[in-house]
């Protein structure tokens, strides 16, 4: 009987190796998620930096060149894992899967909004290169 149990466990361990992803409803864990309706008041060429700060508070990240304010939040969207055979049993190794939402606002030299976008950040993060590329596209 013990031999059958070990054999079945070995077959199960070898056949179940691989990564799995369990999607879950998004749950904000850091910051406040902004919706498109939250930024309806922002009008390119009409809304000022002062009005943005008055509504949302100071930005989470501020770039000088180009002049971009970034507001962000983190949300967990699921769980990933994989099965690992350890000794006479199995172990699951994994973690939560998350994504970062951002509100990007580009200002002109006169402190009026030049461009605004609500989106998810790339997996590499919001870096200076990303901001420069985003600000240069129309």
Features:
single chain, 138 residues, alpha+beta, 5-stranded antiparallel sheet, 22% helix, 44% strand
> Quick one: overall form?
elongated
What is the number of E strands?
5
Specify Rg, calculated over alpha carbons: 23 Å
Low-pLDDT residue intervals, each spanning 5 or more residues: none
Please, how many domains?
A: 1
Q: N-to-C SSE series?
A: HEHEEEEH
Quickly give the structural class. Answer: alpha+beta
Tell me what the structure shows.
The protein is an alpha+beta fold. Helices cover 22% and strands 44% of the residues. It has one domain (2-6, 14-136). It has 3 helices and 5 strands, in the order αβαββββα. Strands 1, 2, 3, 4 and 5 form a 5-stranded antiparallel sheet that branches. The radius of gyration is 23 Å and the shape is elongated. It starts with a helix and ends with a helix.
Brief write-up:
This protein has 3 helices and 5 strands.
Any chance you could write out the topology, listing elements then pairs?
Elements: H1 2-15, E1 19-30, H2 49-56, E2 61-63, E3 68-86, E4 89-107, E5 113-120, H3 128-136
